[in-house]
Amino acid sequence: MTELLLSKPIVDASLVNLRKRAEILKNNGLIPRLAIILAGQNQASLTYTRNKKLFCEKFGAICDIIQLPETVSGGSFLDAVRTTSRDPLVHGCLIQLPLPEHLKDLELDTLIPAHKDIDGFHPLNMHALMRDAPASTYFCPCTPKGILGLLEFYNINVSGKHVVIIGRSSIVGKPLAMLLTNKNATVTLCHSKTSDLRSIAHGADILISAIGHARLIDQSFFSTKKQPVVVDVGTNFDSDNKLCGDVDFDAVRDLVSAISPVPGGVGPLTILSLAQNLLQAAENNVK
Ligand code: NAP
Questions:
Q1: Rounded CA gap, 137 and 284, in Å?
Q2: What is the DSSP string of 208-233?
Q3: 260-278: buried (b, 16+ CB within 10 Å) or exposed (e) per residue?
Q4: Does the structure show a pLDDT above 90 at 5?
Q5: Residue 243: helix, strand or coil by DSSP?
Q6: Are 56 and 34 in contact (CB under 8 A)?
Q7: Within its chain, how far is the Cα of 224 from the centroid?
Q8: For the chain, percent of residues with pLDDT exceeding 90
Q9: Between 20 and 30 A from 68 (CA), which of 76, 81, 97, 138?
Q10: Which positions are annotated as active-site residues?
Q11: Which residue has a Cα nearest atom 19 of ligand 1?
Q12: What is the mean pLDDT of the chain?
């Protein structure tokens, strides 16, 4: 029987904890506050931003959305990020990606100070991940953190396992490879230039897909010899405009031991991780 790796029980249980932590902060005169800087009207970004705000409200945090026009100049954009992220009332700050084309070459990595960079993209946070620093001392990128939380919740031990990740982006694949390596997994990080991707996938104990192609991972990625755990990070819309993952869920579900669906799998865990990072940032102010 294939196990479904659902995020709902994780989110429900974690919300109780987040509310308690926010309440303690409130008793110390502090309300956790997130600021999101958004440029333009990208539909997916507007949805993600709204979902982050709604989730903050569920546990008593404030979320400010700084909405800048699509045509904002590079200078004005940088000024807005600097001003917002240096506001002492803001504990966590992030830039909603993707940015409009003319802002894509801006040097953003160190713009938000590391102690407010709850997306975990600042070089200091990345370096802490690389050297496997204690989790409470830095911010781990949210999607990799959420995926690790998913595996832990369902008691899927990664130590000694062969994890195949497809997709090497800086926000998912690369930091996830580092995080799982720190947890003693043996990781193969694949991408569009990987030769013989299917035969690498056939050797996976755990297969994680972060590609961005609707239902590309079909039966041909699985052999009869192994029934791997599958984590689907993809957030895609098919030709009927239906939300789906990178994995052809219906075609592969009987070939795998466990699988995270889309929707209902990794997506909500990214926001949960963001909330956990926000509280960690706010709590650092009262320690
Ligand atoms: P990205 O920056 O576009 O990277 C995609 C990666 O997939 C690249 O490394 C690319 O290889 C690789 N790739 C593309 N086509 C491939 C193919 N046919 N075979 C093998 N590798 C292939 O994407 P991303 O930002 O990491 O996002 C990936 C997906 O995850 C998207 O659907 C995104 O919406 C979703 N996502 C979901 C969450 C969530 O919370 N659920 C969070 C983040 C992202 P190259 O490097 O060689 O180009």
A1: 10
A2: EE----TT-B-GGG--SS---EEEE-
A3: bbbeebbbbbbbbbbbbbb
A4: yes
A5: strand
A6: yes
A7: 31
A8: 98
A9: 138
A10: 52, 96, 119
A11: 192
A12: 97
